[in-house]
Amino acid sequence: MIGRVLAAPAAARTWREAAFLPAGLVAATPGFALVLLAAVAVPLSVLTIGLPLLVVVLFLSRAWCGVHRWLFRVLLGRTWVAPAPAGGTGLLGRARARLGDPAAWRSLAYSGIKLPLAAVSTYLAALLLAGGVVALTCPVWSRYSPTGWGLLDTGSWTSSWLVALPGLAGVLLFPWVVRGAVALDGLLASALLGAGGRDRRIGHLERGRADLAAEAAATLRRVERDLHDGAQAHLVAVGMTLSRIRERVDRLPPGDRPADLAEVAALTDAARATVASALTELRDVVRSIHPPALDAGLDTALQTLAARSPVPVDLRADTGRRASEPVETAAYFCVAELLANAARHADARRVGVAADDRDGVLTLRVTDDGRGGAVLRPGSGLAGLHRRVTALDGTLHLDSPAGGPTTVTVTLPTGREALP
Amino acid sequence: MTLRIVIAEDNALLRDGLTALLADRGHTVSAAVPDAAGLLDAVAAHDPDVAIVDVRMPPTFTDEGLRAALALRRDHPRTGILVFSQWIETRYATELLAGDPRGLGYLLKDRVVDTDRFVDALARVASGGTALDPEVVSHLLGAGRRRDTLDRLSPRERDVLALVAEGRSNRAVAAALRVTERSVEKHVTAIFAKLDLVPADGDHRRVLAVLRYLTP
User: Fold this and answer.
1) Which of A8, A30, A413, B210 is buried deepest, with most CB atoms within 10 A?
2) Predicted structure pTM score
3) CA–CA separation, B169 vs B137, rounded Å?
4) ipTM score here?
């Protein structure tokens, strides 16, 4: 225990923490400026002029506290889960989200407390260290200075030792003051800079959901592959064998049982027809699980859908970069279902499909010139689409006045945000 | 006519089945290989009339067969190539048809079950004609690029156009639609006129003209 106390001033930890204090002080200054700005902006908000200023201040404050978190991580090895992004879509939505973002307000609170805390603790630590060292070495330098300075008035060499003792105490105390200040700062940071409990739970749930979606997609791919390599290949092989049987039947001389031969031939043909339709159905099943065209990207898959649609389709697909598999699959099936609806229920003569991917949101717009009057009835295909889309945090908007035209707009977040 | 054939197919069941099927019909399968590299070697060694190539083969199971087919086209232009696929991918068809579509075919594996049609297609490709799967043709017709001009055709003319795009001769088209060859010829002339295509005589040239017109 004594050993620890004596060794503390030289310990690496002490010096890291000691470096943290002035670094934190420097970092705290802009943060405090932001707090002052916020203090101005809040009353101005009543006049709405302050609101944009407040939004900017909150945004900057939260971003700036990343520096504090970085300092904690680099110098002290302490990390906290970053708070969830503020969210919101569109300029106005994002601004609103930031005004209500608890993490941003907490960061302002932290910056407000940090500056005085850092200033006091840095001053105290510097005082203890510098003063302590000077006092401690008093016996050494007292010889060379005539009367000492002020407080450290050393009349004699022995009294210089009396000065050295508190100096020693100062130096020994310095690491513990530093440690205390840093611990206090750490408590503050824990409370104000990390993700709140709810944020952490939300993050956990979101990750869990993404995992489930990815796993479901992988399972479906496996099923598709097994059907493809297994069942399909076997059916084709059966078809080929039936052909060869037919071949041999044809080559047999009719002999005295022509009726039997004709029957065998007919049966073989029937079996072949069954195999052919089984293959077609199998292909349709696989396509409904995981369309192979999706391997080439959503744009290509949508082209395939457009080509196969009985109603002419004007396609404008511009999604470019790949979204995640569950999102692309959901988008594909949305368009497939909507095209089918346009053909089946709406009596449409032309359908327009537009797809683009911007700012982390994949937007699909399907418009048909049919009868209109579509409703989101529970249990309908549209309701199923809605469920599927909302499960991925997306939205589905239906605009279908009686007489048409019908427009369905689907948005799906792709998780690639432009702002922090 | 006995054809010399090389087969490239990674699924053993299908490979053996195809070999036996073709042997039954009196054709010679010079080689049956499980991957693209084997295909190129086999074609170089045996100089077959036609090569049957699966699109998806090891190692990546994406489009090795297609790459091999395009390479074959370059190095052995006289060998017909019939590309087989479990799924119809319109972009593979367009890549294949980007060059000279003579002696090229693209079929669904399922079509093998209708052996007569399959062997017909094979023979057509071996002799320099074309054989496109009806599903590919319906994709091409529906792909939207020529949608407006294709709308000018009557339903019967669209049927004829589809069958011509598959690569069939006038006679085959007539048989399929159960009409006389004469009326097929009349339809074809009308189609070419409506689509502003230069009339081409000879089955192969007609197919070429139609495919050029349809592929983006």
Assistant:
1) B210
2) 0.62
3) 15
4) 0.79
